[in-house]
Amino acid sequence: MSLRSWGATVVSALLGTSVLLGISGMSAGTAHSATPIIARYTDTAYVSGVPTFGAISGIDRIGANRFAMISTDVGRGGPARFFTSQFSYTSGAAGFTSNPGIDGGGVLLGPGNIPPLPGSAQYEGIRATSGGYVVVSGGDHQFVRLQSAGPVATYIRDLGLPAAWRPSKKSGLAGQRGLTGVAVGPRGQISVITAGGLRQDPATSARLLTFGKTNSEFVYRTDPGKSAADVLAVNNTDFLVLERGKGRSTAIYWATTRGADQVGGRANLSGAEKPMPKQSIFNTDGTPRLSTGNMSSMAWGNWQPDLPWQDFRTRTLFVVTNNAFAGPTRVHSFEVQLPR
Fold this sequence. Notes:
The protein has one helix at 8-15, and strands at 24-27, 30-32, 38-47, 56-63, 66-71, 81-86, 89-90, 95-96, 104-108, 123-129, 132-137, 143-148, 152-153, 155-158, 179-184, 190-194, 205-210, 216-221, 227-233, 238-244, 250-256, 278-283, 295-303, 312-321, 329-339. The chain is an all-beta fold and 340 residues long.
């Protein structure tokens, strides 16, 4: 359940990796502010599940300490499915008071409300919406899909992707560099991110697309050797992005569209575009003893009690791992201090 048995050595090592990040006065690629943003690792739990539980690629908050998780698997261990779980987590010294279990969930239906055939989807993310869920699939069958709520999540519709994103032999979404995460903003706006560049783009030029009457699109520049794994909305312009590289080296970045070039409608990117400014708030390279697992998705947890004399508020962040049915599903917890 908990990694706190490592004691002060681990805590101090992790505190040493907290990075300060600002949200105003930005320049390309870097953010600066007088008010720091700090992410601090706090604990790890292991999710015990039913026989078909595993390969978890997405997680989202659906209530107080309550979460939905989606499996990337379609066919090998069961139909396209999601799970629900209640986390017993207390901010501060307690952390996880028990390992979470699975208490519900359901199946995801495709067009015609028919279960997706084995191998016809590779689910990479799930977010709650006002009417149910939005899910994304990567791999060989890429889509952004609205589903109803309930144990049988019926098909509502797929969101149309821009022309530059539509897969072809020389352009568009490129397999494992394609759709990898989805975010829902404060106004209900849906954003998706690619793991890396489209086929016609530089490999590190991932794209962030926000759907609307007029879509907005920005470049998110991944670190060399890393790919984006998930995106989580902070507000209307700012996001957390999970980046993953070889050896399970993982970082969490705070990124913003403010100051970035709008690239909507561009058929291809040159690599010279001004990307979303970003700054690391957590990096596993500074925590070598942390058994990270394959960190795959992020979700906000509860806000911690508001202390009005502080110039920040603290919110819990959870990161889930994708074990591909080969090991435990871990949930790591962080406390993120956000400026008011």
